Amino acid sequence: MVSWNPSNWFGTSSPPTPGAAKTADGAYEAPDRNKRQECWDARDGFFACLDKAGIIDSIKDKDAAMLKCGAQLKAFEANCASSWVTYFKKRRVVELEKELALQRLEKEGADLPADIQARRPKAS
Questions:
Q1: Distance of alpha carbon 31 from alpha carbon 22, whole angstroms
Q2: Which of 56, 72, 77, 80 is 20 to 30 A from 109, comparing alpha carbons?
Q3: How many alpha carbons fall within 13 Å on the CB side of residue 12?
Q4: What angle do CA 100, 84, 9 make, to 5 degrees?
Q5: Where are the domains of the chain?
Q6: Rounded distance between C-alpha atoms, residue 111 and residue 119, angstroms
Q7: Any idea which UniProt keywords this protein has (predicted)?
Q8: What are the residues facing 22 on neighbouring strands?
């Protein structure tokens, strides 16, 4: 049976992070500098684990990511808004694919513009 309750039409809003406070108008408060840093640190820990495990796309390879980096993933999800988690996971894949494409172009003899070369991560 379909519910005609308007609150069900657009879904319910869940807090962006566990325990996120609401403002007087009902919106969730934006994270402060410390909360953002905690999120970024958790993201970096999760991504370092993925790198060590050889996993590029933690969305597509969700089971492998959970098996090898489950603790780091839980910390990432606990410290970041769910929309941020999704965004960072997708951006990781895009950035890695972009770097691989640039490496292929260089290998084929392409002369990359200086501004692109300057923005690339340094080889370790």
A1: 11
A2: 56
A3: 3
A4: 125
A5: 32-109
A6: 15
A7: Cytoplasm, Disulfide bond, Mitochondrion, Nucleus
A8: 28
